[in-house]
Amino acid sequence: MTLPEEQQAISSAPVVNATPAAGDSSYLRDGNFWGITLTQFLGAFNDNIYKQTLLLLFVAAPVVVGSTQTRDVQWIGQLMFCLPFILFSGFAGFLSDRYSKRRVIVLSKVAEIVVMGAGLALFALVDRSGMAMNMVLPMSSVVFLMGAQSAFFGPGKYGILPELFPQRQLPAVNGIVIMTTFIAIILGTALGGWLKELFPGMLVIIGVVCVVIAVIGTLTSLMIRKLPPSQPDLAFDVSMLAIPRQIVQLMRTDRQLGSAIWVSTIFWTTGALVQLSVNYLGKEVLKVGDAKTSLMVSTISIGIALGSVTAGLLSRGRVNLRLVLIGATGLTLSLLLLSLPGPGPGGHLLNYPLSMATLIVVGVFTGIFAVPLQVILQERPPVELRGRTIATQNLLNWIGITGSAVVYAVAGLLLEKLHLPKFLVFLVSAGMMGAVAIFYRPAPPEKAAA
Predict the structure, then answer these.
(1) Which of 59, 96, 370, 423 is least surrounded by Cβ atoms within 10 Å, i.e. has the fewest?
(2) Which pTM does this prediction carry?
(3) Which of 3.20.20.210, 1.10.3720.10, 1.20.1250.20, 3.40.640.10 would CATH assign to domain 31-224+244-445?
């Protein structure tokens, strides 16, 4: 489609079919469904094994800043994971539209094998010399490469779904893909902490596991059928390294799409703050150790899996916009609960079991919120702009997540100076989702502004 025709495409951007056959589950017999679901599952599983292992090393790593020694440098790992999404998401979106999304996915998985091989080598060095300050930057560099691989994988992963499945199946397929993704996060985060505790001083075992999973994920990506490029004659433009001009125009013209992209950015920024805060709460406040702290992070994903499937079922083949408000409101209230101090200096109101229960609730409302938002972001853009739209979403999301690392570091220093507990960072997350609950009101498809 040429540039002058884009405005017409925006006004006729497809929405999910409102009259599907009830209980349509034919996608379960489709090899493409299992290919993309397993590939995404294994990728998320692998990322979280490595990332959680690194964060647990960093949360207690002795690092010298100026003349003083500090702990909890998770923000460095978070920052290094985020930067590639800012640097490469725009170009990844161009590749996703210019070439077959399936090809981009397969090559991204091959790159994952190489990255995890580098992670294995660094884990072997830590086993030999111990976790010291001079290992923080090399290990964060592997996280940077892991983020780069994910940045190129993302636009193809989500952009390919509308090319593989009919519109009526997208809410259910998205619900299952998101559910299995967060099941992978549950297992990967928990396994990272469990292996670290089970095999002290033997990080190389975790590295070997990550390499094997990367190989299996590459093989499952081959199950996805070959697809033609959505815009094979697309010429590269320097604006595609950031936000392409066509997407800027699209966001201005389709305000519903633009709003959804900005809300997605707030949502993922909040999520990044929550993960760092939960790691601190478990290890430094509740003092439950690596395995139980990782289980706390995983517990959120249990709720997300439940919430995602629930949202898919309640959608019934169309975008259920009421779920956006329900999800944002529930998230705000549950995050407020996690920010409440308890008796004693630095004490938390909730003990370990109650914190786990609250984190499940956080996850349920996250899943309920995420599914309709993701369908909006997939369905509104015209097909030839879909990859670049999702890449723009990724870019802005990861700018927000990068900002969350800075917010976490600055808020932590400020709370320390005020002699307040660091878990009050949960208040920041609650405030962000509270603003979404109050101000974001997506219009029904038939009333959406063109």
Answers:
(1) 59
(2) 0.65
(3) 1.20.1250.20
